[in-house]
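ping. complex inputs:
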Amino acid sequence: MNEIEKILEFIVEIEKLKAVVRKTRPVGIDRYENSAEHSWHVCLSALMLKDYANKNININRVIKMLLIHDLGEIDAGDTIIYQSETVENKNKEAAGVERVFKLLPEACYEEYTALWQEFELGLSADSKYARAIDRVPPLLHNLLGEGHSWQDNKVSKDKVFSVNSRIKDGSQKLWDVMESKLENAVSKGILK
Amino acid sequence: MNEIEKILEFIVEIEKLKAVVRKTRPVGIDRYENSAEHSWHVCLSALMLKDYANKNININRVIKMLLIHDLGEIDAGDTIIYQSETVENKNKEAAGVERVFKLLPEACYEEYTALWQEFELGLSADSKYARAIDRVPPLLHNLLGEGHSWQDNKVSKDKVFSVNSRIKDGSQKLWDVMESKLENAVSKGILK
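pong. complex structure:
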């Protein structure tokens, strides 16, 4: 098979991310979000908020990271973050990413597997910022949607603050804004 | 309002693209695609096919272009390409893009409005390649989905070949592959 045909096969395979359903509803939309549209949304969010990263980041790498960050869910499915960061789930995602990137030419397989791992590890400045941004839309969905996903999934305010405070590792300024919105949600009683 | 708050307002506003329904069904998924997940899909497609562009392109600019290329549809809605390229529709999209980008700080408004216009004009190497890639997933949806959208929308093979041959302006090699798939669809009788 020629390389273009291989890449087209990858393009068809990753469509499955459009069928992976997440745990929040987008603002004003009466259905749950899928991981493909979420991926688009975090890319544009990262682009527009880039000047608020704590450190010098390479926004082009961040966007690539966010384009691929959920591909492991094609095989592993989406799990709410408050329960998903287990070794078993991460292994499933890693195997899924590997399977999908194997459809690509070897050099791409290596490059994008490494980029996905960098995102997962969250140690570099780029990945810290990408992981911060990944948290923003689901928080906005809850904040503007009566805390629907926090309540449906019985997530406590302590858990919400502790998991999302990772935003400050990527952008202290963004966390300051989000933290005050979360405190406001607590006063309003939609986050308990 | 501080700038981060303005950008968060933009992030919430663009969610509406998740509710804009397109005219093809993704492979293996029993619903129509929306323009947000399509935008993610074309970004990753562009990234993986970048080495097949006719000219030297800046893939980072191409990805930014594709992230924003459909934002005008929030106000204008999606129209099938075989009928959409009218002055009236393009004006509606341009006004929609302007309204949405106005939510951003001034410098971003100017930068991304210009980038959107560059995509629409399709004269630069980056925009020619981006516009080529934008055609690929809907063709794959039809090719692997019994030509459902061609038939539902009564699109003739002449129209399909003439509109999509713009792929060759961005990537002759990609058009060679797609053209042969389209010819195959004609032989199979799913494109008439």
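Chain B touches chain A through 46 residues (CB under 8 Å).
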